[in-house]
Amino acid sequence: MAVTRTFSIIKPDATRRNLTGAVTKMLEDAGLRVVASKRIHMTEDQAGGFYEVHKERPFYGELVEFMTSGPVVVQVLEGEDAVKRNRDVMGATNPADAEEGTIRKTYAESIEANTVHGSDSDENAKIEIDFFFNEDEIVG
Questions:
Q1: Where would I find the Nucleoside diphosphate kinase-like domain in this sequence (predicted)?
Q2: Residue tagged active-site, from 67, 98, 115, 117
Q3: Can you tell me whether residue 124 is helix, strand or coil?
């Protein structure tokens, strides 16, 4: 397996409940290394641009509103097959369907407030990383 990178967001529901460290520990315990991290408060333009792919979907407005409702932590994670590893530790989008021991089963409040976002492919990971980070901010 190759060492790759993926993108992660610890969402406002988790930062509001002071779970940043607990979520990061679960990511690290799963074999992922944080090579870049920053706490930001997304603007409407940032959230709208980041979730542009969902613009035509009925939940887009609520998603942008939620993601701008409080601080988030954006991270670049590195590890063997990082996208898959991160998706495995995050668990299913709907926490009711997530496996025990996953981030979403452990911490998510609902399908909307589901604690974390993670890239779904290597291609999207690069796009998402580049959206929030300059190369000089990523220190591996």
A1: 3-140
A2: 117
A3: helix
Span 6-25, pLDDT tens digits? 999 999 999 999 999 999 99
**Do the beta carbons of residue 77 and residue 87 sit within 8 Å?**
no
Is residue 124 a known part of a binding site?
Answer: no
Residue 54 designated active-site: no
Tell me the torsion sign for CA atoms 64, 88, 10, 32.
Answer: negative
d(CA 26, CA 119): 17
Indicate the residue type of 36: A
As a whole number of angstroms, the distance between CA 9 and CA 67 comes to: 10
Residues 6, 77 contacting (CB under 8 angstroms): yes
Residue 87 known to bind ligand: yes
Question: Which pTM does this prediction carry?
Answer: 0.95
- Please indicate if the annotation marks 11 as binding a ligand: yes
Mean pLDDT, the chain, integer: 97
Domains of the chain: 3-137 (3.30.70.141)
Q: Name the pLDDT band for 105 (thresholds 50, 70, 90).
A: very high
Average pLDDT of 62-71?
A: 97
